[in-house]
Amino acid sequence: MTPERLGLLWGVTVSSGAAARFLAAKSEFPGVVLLLLSGLLIGRSGLGWVEPLDLGSGLGTVVGLLVSLVLFDGGLNLRLPGDTIKATVQRIATLRLLISLGGGLLAAHWLAGLSWSLAAVFSAIVLATGPTVVTPLVRQIRLAPPLGEVLEAEGLVLEPIGAVLALLLLELVLGNLHGWREVMLGLLYRLGGGVLIGASVGWLLSELLRRLKPDQLKGLPLQLSLGLLFLMYGVSEWLLPESALPASVAAGIVVGRRPGPHTAELDGLIQELAQLAITMLFPLLAADVSWAELSPLGWGGILCVLSLMLVVRPIGVGLATIGLPYKLEQRLFLGWLAPRGIVTAAVASLFAIRLEQAGILGAGRLQGLVFLTILMTVGLQGLTAQPLAQALGLVKAEDDEPASAEAAAQTRQVLTDSGQQ
After folding, report:
1. Model pTM?
2. Per-residue pLDDT tens for 205-221?
3. Which sequence spans correspond to the domains of the chain?
4. CATH number of the domain at 15-20+29-395, please?
């Protein structure tokens, strides 16, 4: 690929994402839906201006670095106040890990026609909701607490688990692993190793940030953060493939729990960069969708996705919230909103390439079903989230926003002052 063509690819991708953001801001239409549509327009299914595979082996690295930035931002802002929210996230994560894996496996095999092995890979890939999609939706519809915190935390917890498990199941299909015992050991090994690496890097970064004086070089906190984050990504992937995802979340959580004089500044800058990463990634990965991969799925693929949305998810949430102080309206909303995001799309694209190279039949069908899941969940749930939240009375009152913003600012100031001490 020529440098001119490469520059055009990135120029078209970023500008289309920025245009989608602009339209969302002006129309109050869900931004994630417009980002997805912009990718379909410029990619294989539309004008054909962007072909992600032209990036070659660099596609995985670019996507991985940007995803690690998004997950680091999620961990940095993760707040789980109160035992009820923590219990909810733990229950949803545990029960959905079991119910969604089983339900996705059966639906993908019986309804979409995937082989048992590829159906297992599919169920792991689409296990988690995407914080890259959930967070913008929660902020746009001004969802009243604690539902926003629960939805964001659920995605941050399950997304690394789903990605690592999907990789190990892929290795099982390719014959590089033998038996479920190796799969489970590999899962614990990568998750544990990733969390350990991430926590260590997060502690180191927080110590460096706390030792910087407020009048020192402006921009240095961001440079330190990105330098260590990207180095952590490279080392994690070199030592334990796919461990960079849990490492990014863990690093963000540690830095967020150890505030210093630059915490507020860093938080805002990282959040802006994470939004830019989403603006780049969504159109890029959506451009990889081909109608030729979606059309053979037919009604079986649609029914498979609908079963995940209307049966598997509500059952998991319903069981997880038994005995917890949530109203019926809150349970209904938690059971409905579960869009898949960037990590799901990235994993599907990269896995399809490996399966095709290994000569495994059904690789295109697997990728098509994953992207159909993303299209349907982002489209249907993105369009209906705000009307549903309003109908159920779950939207934050406008009068509460200034008080909430003031309380948040006071809380951050207290944390910053304590960090300086």
Report:
1. 0.81
2. 988 888 777 666 677 88
3. 15-20+29-395
4. 1.20.1530.20
